[in-house]
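pinging the channel bc i need a second pair of eyes. not urgent but kinda urgent?? the chain im working w is below, pasted from the shared doc
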Amino acid sequence: LAGLGLVAWLAGRARANRFMAEGHKRINSLPSYHGWFTAMAALLPALIFLAVWQSVSPALVDQAVLESPAAAGIPQDDFRRNAILGEARSLAKNPSQQVFNDAARKIAPAYAEAQTWYGMIGLTGAFLLAFAGGAFAFLRLRPDFRARHQVERVVMTGLLLASLIAIFATIGIVASLIFETGRFFSMVSPADFLFGTHWAPSDKLGGSESGFGAVPLFWGTIFIGAIIAMIIAIPFGMMSAIYLTQYATPRVRSIMKPVLEVLAGVPTVVYGYFAALTIAPALRDVAVSLGIAGASSESALAAGLVMGIMIIPFVSSMADDSIAAVPNSLRDGSLAMGATKSETIRQVLIPAALPGVVGGVLLAISRAIGETMIVVMAAGYAANLTANPFASITTVTVQIVALLTGDQKFDSPMTLAAFALGLVMFIVTLLLNLIAIMIVKRYREAYE
């Protein structure tokens, strides 16, 4: 198909050049646009057909195999039959592969033959469509043909579809969360879920206590991601941004800024190992030496400290860019009025850069709230409603992973609880964004 597209492009451009050679000094579009129009007409129908055929042909192949004499002894049970067909499909691609069902080895040749047959049908159909589309476009080319307009319409349609994918994906995510959360709330009371303090999910519901009280999870998420981590990330991120923009020399800045941003590229599992093997034991020993009761090797403080270190670049980078974008006239005016450099930073630069700083802080909070690996390895799975930073605690994201893993029924309250937790996190994140927009709008109006 790529070769046919190239041939169509060359043929369309050559035909447009021939128009110019025949005396048509002013053609509507450049020869390259004629070439692109012909190539698109050849490729797009063929690619659309192949995409549809790839989704339809597996069912046709399975039907052809089941109708073959070799499949006479295949069980009628859907689960066993699909397992045999899956092994036959793999065996058709790799004959040396080991299989568990002898029936799969018997029907593998029929599977390979059916795949070859329907594959040839797909390739032939795509080739014919490409040839027909290219020929149709080639015959439409004339000196006054608006090839550029047609090409730009196709490109604009592609850009529109690309932008709609994100919108439809968001709508689909929200719709699935709402639908599955509705199913969950038909089994568990929303009041028990949102205000209950006991989290012990189970498939069996009974009594006044459902075991789906999510307050400990919400508190753990806020305590680790929005309190402890932010106590570390915001001061260090802001101070590093102020130093890099106002005090550091260009040479120091060129070295320190990339080094600082490397923290954002370290895999979270590495931070998790660091928290579990180094920070958590050290904090436990400190708590024991101070006589603090309930100190654990899995603690909220260990996860929050390491998470705060991880998200320092998010705060620092956004604050750095925002402070650097403040007009020099504001800084120079403050210094000219007799303010010191520190006073200028506190009273002029930071308030003027506050929209960007708030954006960086909210980005960091979103990153911390959604973190899972560090919490799993350093804070554990215990759903405790406690303000003791040395105690084991868990978060919403960790419990979502725990609820959706394992051999469980999808329609059980344990599994559906993960969607309810996800919907709550979605709403909280939306509210944070709305608050940030209000703050940014207020200070932007004050400094414009």
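so The chain is about 75% helix and 0% strand. and The mean pLDDT is 84. — does that match what u expected or am i reading it wrong
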